[in-house]
């Protein structure tokens, strides 16, 4: 996890962008998701899960379900890092 509470690790940024892009492609631009969408049905990476929860719940005070395009935009706004590929999705 990063020191700045508004930022998230490049690994989580990439995962969030990939999931948002996939969900939007599968179900359309109004698809909703929760932060659990970024994880399998088992708790195999508790630190990353807590990082996502912190960012989603405490930092941004998001509702349980949010539009994937909104989450994608929030993550893109953080991605000044060359390690994160913002993809080619457009609204």
Task: Write up this protein.
The chain has helices at residues 10-27, 46-59, 68-78, and strands at 32-33, 66-67. The protein is mainly alpha-helical and 91 residues long. The chain has one domain. Strands 1-2 form a two-stranded antiparallel ribbon. The longest helix has 18 residues, at 10-27. The termini are far apart. The model is unreliable at 81-86 (pLDDT under 50).
Summarize the structure.
By secondary structure, this protein is mainly alpha-helical.
Looking across the biggest beta sheet, what order are the strands in? 1-2
- Provide the residue-averaged pLDDT: 84
Q: Give the structural class.
A: mainly alpha
Largest sheet report: 2 strands, antiparallel
| Number of DSSP E strands | 2
**3D shape:** globular
Radius of gyration: 12 Å
- How many domains, in number, for the residues? 1
Figure out the total of helices: 3
Measured as a percent range, the helix fraction is 40-55%
Strand fraction equals under 5%
N-to-C SSE series?
HEHEH
Spans with pLDDT under 50 lasting ≥5 residues?
81-86
* N→C terminal distance: 29 Å
